[in-house]
Design brief:
Length: 233
């Protein structure tokens, strides 16, 4: 909220949605604990990034998927009030059902015309066990689905990079590969800060879908060093 004489002026809503895999394989080698820890550590940095841009009202929530998909944090929560609830792993990888849940929330309503491009962050270590392609098509058929900034983080070498690339929808940006907890933490932090700042910038407010430019094109390249000697996934 920006202050002005006579009251506060609300920024444009910027919906940030984590889409997290909590299938059984995420319970191997501490992946799910590393994901929980990374998001917990990223929240203060996310709050700081949001405070630096009063033009955006950052609203955060989360979808998880394993046997089916459900809202883990269903209410669009102001980042100042956001708290992460730890995940536990188990089940299969119904990633497509997660796409459908997100798509339902990107319709107008509940979305509004004045919103900034939503940020969707998909995190997975495996392959979809349902019809992901049809569900992604459903998501991208919506104006806000098409205009969304889509980032994908692959956890471990078994992650389905082709599927994550389809989700991103921009050949110039690939999935970010995290093969150890430190790299995962760095990518989560980068997504929570640099992506937020870029999405709320004036450049992001153009109708990129009409120009044929992928919405993620204005996202900066992450400068994250990876230490392969510590890879465990």
């Amino acid at each position: 909220m920006r202050k002005r004489p006579g009251g506060a002026l609300a920024g444009r809503p910027l919906h940030f949605i984590w889409i997290a895999d909590k299938s059984g394989s995420m319970g191997i080698d501490g992946k799910i604990q590393a994901l929980n820890h990374a998001i917990h550590e990223a929240i203060p940095h996310m709050k700081e990034a949001a405070n630096e841009n009063p033009n955006a009202e950052v609203l955060v929530r989360a979808v998880v998927f394993s046997d089916g998909a459900q809202w883990h944090i269903s209410k669009p929560t102001p980042i100042s009030d956001f708290k992460w609830k730890d995940l536990t792993a188990g089940g299969i990888t119904d990633m497509g059902k997660a796409m459908n849940l997100v798509a339902d929330q990107l319709k107008i309503p509940p979305m509004t015309d004045r919103a900034l491009p939503p940020v969707l962050v998909l995190i997975s270590d495996g392959q979809p066990t349902d019809d992901f392609n049809a569900s992604l098509k459903n998501l991208l058929s919506l104006p806000w689905g098409k205009k969304s900034v889509r980032i994908a983080i692959a956890i471990g070498e078994d992650a389905d990079l082709d599927t994550l690339q389809k989700f991103i929808g921009n050949v110039e940006i690939g999935p970010f590969q995290a093969n150890n907890p430190e790299t995962l933490k760095n990518y989560i932090k980068w997504t929570s800060t640099a992506v937020l700042k870029a999405t709320s910038s004036p450049m992001s407010q153009t109708d990129s879908s009409d120009s044929g430019t992928p919405p993620s094109s204005f996202i900066p390249e992450p400068t994250i060093s990876t230490d392969s000697s510590s890879d465990i996934w």
